[in-house]
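Database export, one record per block. Field names are fixed; values are copied verbatim from the stored entry.
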Amino acid sequence: MSSRLNPYISFKDNAREAMEFYQGVFGGTLNVSTFGEFGDKDAPGADGVMHAMLETPQGFTLMGADTPPGMEHNPGTNFSVSLSGDDADELRGWWEKLSEGGQVAVPLEKQMWGDVFGMCMDRFGIGWMVNIAGAQS
């Protein structure tokens, strides 16, 4: 897998509806995972979208999720740029540069779904998500 850069949108309890709408607009394949698939299936918000990815025939990739329970949703600032792939060295290098002088919200470390993931805001106020597929922490 090569590295990819794409938008990642946060929604307030309607990510599935929004991502299905975008699939209707652009076509393609939509994959959706819920919070309950990776945690307590009976917890509040378990049916919310933890991660959705739309890949279109034109080569577009759009990712999105519901804002996790307990986190604030701010329309207008609910957008990040996602970097993902399996080249751990390349992605870690970009993470180090992007997070330098910024704020780390989620440290780049192994997550419950098995990938290494981190979130930061760069020194210019842009949100970034980095996901290293199948990487070891």
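Remark 1: The chain is about 20% helix and 40% strand.
Remark 2: The mean pLDDT is 89.
End of record.
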